[in-house]
Queue: 4 jobs
Job 1
Amino acid sequence: MKRKSNLYIILLAFLLAFSLYGCSSAPDDMADEQIPADGIYQIYYTDLEGTSLVRRDYQAKSEDFEGLLAEILEAFQNPTGSDVRSALPEQVKINSTVIGINEIAVDFNAEYLSLDTITELLLRGALVKTLVTLKGVDAVRFTVDSQNLVIGDEEIGPMTNDTFIVPVGKGINSYRNALVTLYFPVEDGSMTAKESRTVHYSSNVNKEKMVIEEMLKGPQGPQSDQMLPVAVDGTLVQDVSVNNGYCIVDFSSEMNSAPPGEVIANPETVLYAFTNAIIDSCPEDKLTGVRFRIEGSSDLRFRDQVNLDQVFTRNADVIYNPVVKLEESEGE
């Protein structure tokens, strides 16, 4: 599998506080993401200090999609409230937008590249989370003078609402970029291959839980068509804890059902895929093993085959060299 070299982990610190305003009388501690009423869209701004995101409801007038997009972008750049400001700095301009299939590409002028780290990440988070509230928009792509956005050595691809993970409710939170290492079953389901993925997440979110949730989303990289999912849709992470070098993961009952498909991954391989991803992505916690539960219990056999009442340790034997294996299949 071809992967970019020189990918990096950026540790950022900035404040994210989501204040909820608008037509409804919903409490401030409600969940961060909501389904807006007809004609009402959520637009993200920053506070006056430029250190927090503030969400506002916006009543749109346009009915066609292009008109709605233009109206939302205008409101994004020119907030009406005196206690918020646009996440788009004055020197940065939007050159154009291109509407694709389930995706919007936003092209900026070259001044975008001069933004400091915090301002840049706030802008990305605010605009992505604003535009994905539009019906049919699942992802947003940033370009600068028609070139794909590159931060450091990493090309930033399409970003979804899930790219920016934030905690429920309001508060002051440290916000980070992390490059995580995920593993997904391949070929006959007995081995796994690596996929690297950059995730923006709050320090209020347990990093191990973030990694597991990324695994549950399934493969998303360039070779995703050669990889198998590890769980059915709707599987939830009910609890994750770290104690004495062990990570304990509790899944919802859906985890015990194998995803549909012509090839089904070996249940033991699935558990080692999670184990290797957790241990490799969280080296700072010096984990030595992972224990799994389903609905709070480990007294069962995972997908009728593997005894869950045991500690799973990192297993390099289920990881093959993605460059050798997957590139060989490309050249056939």
Note: The chain has a mean pLDDT of 82.
Job 2
Amino acid sequence: MPGELILIVEDNEKNMKLVRDLLQVKGYQTLESETAEDGILIARESQPALILMDIQLPGMNGIEALKVLRADPITQKIPVIAVTASVMTQDSKDIMAAGFNSYQRKPIEIKGFLDEVRRLLEV
């Protein structure tokens, strides 16, 4: 629901701007991180309602970051959507097997993306 806090972990400036602008125009509050390591710290401190996690990040990747989030009692219940350009069937299977709540391909399809954000926030 609008007003909720969403953390975006994305290293590409254009992708970050697109996602941030889409969420903010719908009334969501956003926090941003360009690395998984910083994203984990922000998630622990701010406890967002949802995390949008790129998979290909500098340093720790999104799958490794999810493992850290799921192992921490403070962040383990936060839903996490993988947002990635990895479109191979095996990639999507690996991402979902890692424990993400959902998977969105880049470039994002705006309506489907916003519907999925709303769905996970309503759970």
Note: The longest strand covers residues 5-9.
Job 3
Amino acid sequence: MGQIITLTAPSGAGKSTILGRLNSKKLFTFSVSVTTRAPREGEEDGVDYYFVSEEKFHSLLSEGKFLETAIVHGNFYGTLFSEVDQILSTDATLLLELNPEGASNAKAYYPTSVAIMILPPSYELLSERLKGRATDSVQVVQKRLSAARGEIKWGIDNADYFIINAQLDQAVEDFENIINIIKCKHSVFVENNKKYLEELTNIM
């Protein structure tokens, strides 16, 4: 049985940058999500996303096929139970980038899932990062900052681990250390190594 790690972070906290640094280390795998947005150049159906119509998406939703869904820039996204279960059957560590509601759903359906939240060094710096992007309107920035307060409050009540992204190298190292700790945690280790432990106890 594999392990689910959910990753939640306010917009601007540096989640994508940290993951970009860790991807080459093959510490975890990702599921292929379903989306209603059009494929971008170079994207392949079934590899980058499952590209579907809104009608198909809502059909899957009504059939209870999704662990979680979200709307981003007017497009629907969802994580399929079938994708999650297939990856978990390979004993892999599955990383899901989710909003608080999605992370809560993952915990409800998969109790051994572990929630990590990435935080900015301060609310002021988060505001500076978002404004510095120069890609969002003032209204959008304020909306993201308002949402950040709710996301952080959720994390205080529900996250298992926190990473403060004040210095990128340290944040990446902290993330890697947390993943290694999770794999050694009693409940996770026992669940993921049943056959191994049974062999040891039978021998002893």
Note: The chain has two domains: 1-29+92-204, 31-91.
Job 4
Amino acid sequence: MKIGSIILPDKPLILAPMEDVTDGPFRLLCKRFGVDLMFSEFVASEAVIRKIDKTLQKMEIDPSEHPYGIQLYGKEIDAMVESAKIAEQYAPDLIDINFGCPVKKIAMKGAGAGMLRDIPKLLKMTEAVVKATSLPVTVKTRLGWDEDSKNIVQLAEQLQDLGIAALTIHGRTRAQLYTGQADWTLIGEVRNNPRMHIPIIGNGDIDTPQKAKLAFDTYGVDAVMVGRAAIGRPWIFRDMRHYLDTGEILPPQLVREQVALIREHVEMSKAGRTEVRAVRSMRRFFSVYFKGLPDFRDTRVKLLQAESFDEVNSLLDIIVDRWGDLPAYSSTESVAK
């Protein structure tokens, strides 16, 4: 599969951009487990042009992360254009425009999925960003704003005509947020539209190797994007690739193997952060890493309250002693369970 001049393997697996999740340490872990393309956390265009340090740091790339995209969002066309030019200086392989974030504080202000309520402006913004950068520009969006405005088939054609290099579609409307099941039928309709010639990337509820294969085989997408299912399970990309290539399900990791990976993740989180900030940055992962372990609630609470590396490492020692030989939460299990 090609996105502009970027060549990806057959049936690529892509890590979705997620705020406060897809930072550098987590991306590097996912890269180790075979993800084919990654994105930054989504980056606010207004903060980029104001040169907010925390925002600019989100665009920094380790050379080993390529191919890599920076995802931008905003409601003002001029700010998006200028931020795309600035983002290009960080040497990503592509620029992605976020027209899919459903979070209220973003969407209700007209950015992210909020742009789906103003399609003419969405198209003007896309055209302006495509013209502003020499990099491939991709778009991530949803089926529509709500059940009565599922306009993705027509919108996909319009975006393609403006010169985008690939389109990612999350199979929900903005009104659904992340509830219910993703509807892949419209994603498949876009992919099988004879007018479409750019790659179509499917997103939504891809949380097992079996579902990844189903997305390719049934709906014909060119790639699948994995989001929430990768939080706490970066090895899901290895498991998916193995299943796609061989039809075999890999055995689950043991908890002690999982803990070894978490210790690495904690160490990686230290870069450029104070101890407290580094530990707190791990909390969203701690809440998922040990999902499904019996009698784990009290230990999870302690992990989520830890403020130092010593506290975390002591708790990880306890976890290995008590649960180390149990299978870790498997990537063959749906996160919806």
Note: The two ends are 32 Å apart (CA to CA).
